[in-house]
Amino acid sequence: RQALGGTCVNVGCVPKKVMFNAAMVHEMIHAAKQYGFDDCDKGPTFNWANIKEMRDFYVKRLNGIYQRNLENSGVTLIEGLGAFNGPNSIKVGDTVYTADHINIAVGGKTVMPDIPGIEHCIDSDGFFLLEEQPKKVAVIGAGYIAVELAGIFQELGSDTSLFVRGEKALRRFDPILSDNLDKAMKDAGMSVVPGSTPKAVTKAADGTLSLELENGDVHS
User: Fold this and answer.
1) Average pLDDT, stretch 149-158?
2) For residue 92, which phi and psi values (nearest 5 degrees)?
3) Residue 167: which of 176, 178, 177, 159 has the closest Cα?
4) 26 C-beta neighbours (distance < 10 Å), count
5) Which end of the chain is more exposed for a tag (fewer CB within 10 A), N or C?
6) Which residues of 197-215 are buried (b: 16+ CB within 10 A; e: fewer)?
């Protein structure tokens, strides 16, 4: 059901690196004054909708390359919802396909926390569907994907908070990395909230979301 190329091309490495590069350019603009560039304080403004349009176009081009590679390799692409109807057969729509060997490689899907109000939240895939840049965002997670997305949000101007269950992000990585990362995120202005286990998410009449933690703290 996803476009050709899987996670990496559509909602992983490729579009993430586009956003990472945008954040890196923004950081370089901030540092330009220290390298002899004048009138840097005003600087350019960042247009989220613009980068999304260009990023989506780039990804769509890669989808086309994958499709042509399949065609050039003699691979038949069958689109539809498939289901086994025998030990060596799969039915897609009204058509049954048989084979001596069937390889199941459907990928995985994000498991969201089972808490009240989770329907108001998005997963990392949803990051790439955002049409507008949020003014304020809460990223829940301590792994590298959470860290990457939180860093992109923060550098591009969103007021970002990172909620982690332990005392820091990437806590199982080498301490030299995780300790320096923790300091760098805080120095960049990001709020890192340790000991955070989500309990519920509530939505106010004005659309504002609030995150309640197991310890009773509420963040809006």
Assistant:
1) 98
2) -120, 110
3) 178
4) 16
5) N
6) ebbebeeeeeeebebbbee
Taking Cα atoms as reference points, which of 206, 204, 48 lies closest to residue 129? 48
Neighbours of 57 (CB within 10 A): 9
> Which DSSP category does 34 fall into?
G
| Tens of pLDDT, residues 24-55 | 999 999 899 899 988 877 778 999 999 999 99
**What amino acid occupies position 102?**
I
Strands (E), the chain: 82-86, 89-92, 95-98, 136-140, 159-163, 191-193, 198-203, 209-213, 218-219
According to DSSP, the β-strands at 209-213 and 191-193 are unpaired
Q: Is the dihedral of CA 192, 195, 201, 205 positive or negative?
A: negative
Q: How many helices (H) and strands (E) does the chain have?
A: 6, 9
Cα torsion at 56, 59, 60, 65 (round to 10°)?
Answer: 170
Percent of the chain with pLDDT over 90: 89
Report percent pLDDT > 70 for the chain.
100
User: Over 80: is that where the pLDDT of 91 sits?
Assistant: yes
**Which pLDDT score is estimated for 1?**
65
Banded model confidence at residue 130, pLDDT cuts 50, 70, 90: very high
